[in-house]
C-alpha cells in the first residue's frame, strides 16, 4: 500500500455497494445478513477514513481527479475528491458515528419483517454514501449531488413507516423544505459558474478569482448558499421539518441529527469560509439566524412532552449555536461543535431509542419516570450526554460551546448574552427530560413496568462508546488560555481557515474576561440544571391545561400554524382556483375550443363537397374569373 | 385581318364552351364543349402566331413564328387522345347506367 489516498474512492463506494446489495437482495437476504452487510461496509469506510485522517494528520492533503463530470466549452467540472483537514474530520464523524448507529439499528429494528429490514439498511447506506459524497467532493457540483442525495434519503427514511399517513407527510415536509433551500444553493451555483466559470473550491477561493467578484456578487452568492444551508441544517425559516422528522425510526433521527444531514449546511459554510469572511453582511445574517434559531428552538424544547421532540428542538437549537459560531467567524468552534454535538446528540437519540424500546414504543415523557433502576447503562450514558449538552466541564460540549460563545462575545457582547440565555434553557430542558425519564416513580402502565429491561449489548455498546467520546471528545480543543497548545483541533484545521482569519479582524479578549465568561455560562447552566433536577425529579402527572406563555411554547410558538395560514392555505386556495377555474375553464376551454371550432368549421365546409361535378367546375370558373379580375383591373 | 376579330371570336367560342360545360348535363355535350374551348385556344394561338410572323423580329429567327403553331398540333394530339379515352368512358357509362347524365355520377359521395 503506497498511498492510502489511492483507496479514498472506496470510502463512499463501499456504502453504495452496501445499498445495492441490500436494496437488490431485500427479498432474499436474512435479517442478520443485511444488518451485517449494512454495518460492515460502513465499518470498512470508517477504517479507510481513519487511515486517510492519519495521512492528513501528517500534513498531506490531496485533490484526486477521477473523471470529467461535465465538460462543455470552457466549463469543466471534474468528478474530484478533496481530502484535506476539514473533509477528513467530517469523514471520521460520519462513518464513525454512522457505524455505531448501524450496529444499534440491527437490534433496534429487529421487530421489522426481513424485507423492510433490508430496505431500511439499504436506505441507511445510501444516506451515508450521499453524505460522504457531499463531504468529499472537491467542487460545489459534487457537493450538490450529495446534498440532494441526503435530502432524498431523509425523505425515504422519515417516511420509512410509509403506511402511516402522518409519517409520509412528515417525509414530504422534510423533502419540500429542503427543496426550497436547494433552490438557493442552485442559484448560488449558477452565479458562480456565470461569474467565474468554475465551481471547484481551489479555484473559487483563489485570489485571482476572488478579485473577479464584486462585493455584491459575494454577498448574494453567500446569501443564497445560506438559504441552502438553512434548509439542510434546519434554521429559521426552514427548520420546521426537523422536529417532524421524528416520524422516522429513532436511529434514523440519530443519523440525521448527529452525524449527517444537518451538519451539511455547517460543512458547506465552513468550506466556503473565505467567501463568507468577505461578506460582512452575510456573516451578520448568519449569526442572527443562528442566534434566533438557538433561542426559539430552546424555548420550544422547554415544554415538549415527547422525548424525541425535545431532542429534535435541542438539535435545532444546537445547530443555531453552530451558525452563530460561523457567523462570528469562530469557524473552528463551529466545526468543533459539529463534532462534539455528533457524539452527544447521537448518544441522546440512541439512549432515547433504548428507553422507547424498553417501554414498547412509548414516547411521552409523562408516562415515563424512574427508569434509573431498570436501565443502568442507558441511564449513565444518558446522564453523561445531558452534562455534555448542558456544557458542564469537562464534558465535550463545554469546550465547543464556550469557544463559540467566546467568539460571539468578541463580535458583540449581546450575542454572548443571548447565547448564554439559550445555554441556560438547554440545561433546563435537558434535565427536565432527564428528570422526567429517569427519576421519580414510574408513571406508565403495569404491563409496561413488568416489561422494563435494559437493552441488549448491541444497543448499549454503541451507547458506551459514544458516552466515552462525549466525555473526552472535548479535550482535543482545550482553549489556548487554559493550556498552551491545547487546542489541537485549531492547529489541525488552521490551513482551512487561515485565509479567513487573515481577512476577519481579531477580537482579542483578555484571559480574565474569558475565565469570567466561562464562569458565568457554567454557573448559569448549573443553576438551571439544579432547578430542573429539583423540579422534575418529583414530577407528577397533572391534567391541568397549560396557560399563557407555556401554552404558546407547548404549541411551538404556533409557527406551524402560522406557516399553515400565511403560506400553505393561500397556496392551496390558489391551487384550487387554478384547478377549478383556470384549468377547467381557461386551459380546458381553450383546448376544447380549438377542437370544437375545427370540428364545426369542417362540418360547414363539408357541404362544399357535394359530389356534383357542375358545382366544382362552376367554382373553378369563378375562381379563374376572380384571378382575371384581380390581374387586369386591380 | 385585324387581330381583334380573332380574339373576339375566340372569346365567344371559349365562353360558349364554359357555359356549355356548366349548364349541360349530357356527358357528350359537355365533352363537345370542352373541345370547343380547346379549339378556341387553338384559334387564338394560330392568330397570334401569324401576327408575330410579320414582325421584323420574327424574320431573323426561323422558329420564332412557328412555335405557337407547333403547340396547336400538340393540343390537337392530346385532345384526340383525350377524346378516345373520354368517349370510351362515356360508352361504358351508358352501358352501365343507361344514361349519360353527369348528375348521376355522384355515387362516391356517400
How is this structure best summarized?
The complex is a heterodimer of chains A (634) and B (110). Chain A is mainly α.
Could you explain the architecture of this structure?
- Chain A has 634 residues and is mainly α.
- Chain A has three domains: 1-138; 249-540, no CATH class; 564-633, no CATH class.
- Chain A has 26 helices and two strands.
- Chain A has helices at residues 10-24, 31-57, 85-108, 114-136, 140-158, 165-196, 201-204, 207-212, 215-232, 241-244, 250-259, 263-271, 273-277, 280-301, 307-327, 331-358, 376-390, 396-411, 413-438, 446-451, 457-472, 488-503, 511-537, 548-554, 559-606, 613-633, and strands at 62-72, 75-83.
- In chain A, strands 1-2 form a two-stranded antiparallel ribbon.
- In chain A, a hairpin with a 2-residue loop joins strand 1 (62-72) and strand 2.
- In chain A, helix 3 (85-108) packs antiparallel against helix 21 (457-472) and helix 16 (331-358) packs antiparallel against helix 21 (457-472).
- With 110 residues, chain B is mainly alpha-helical.
- Chain B is built from four helices and no strands.
- The mean pLDDT of chain B is 84.
- At the A-B interface, helix 26 of A face helix 1 of B.
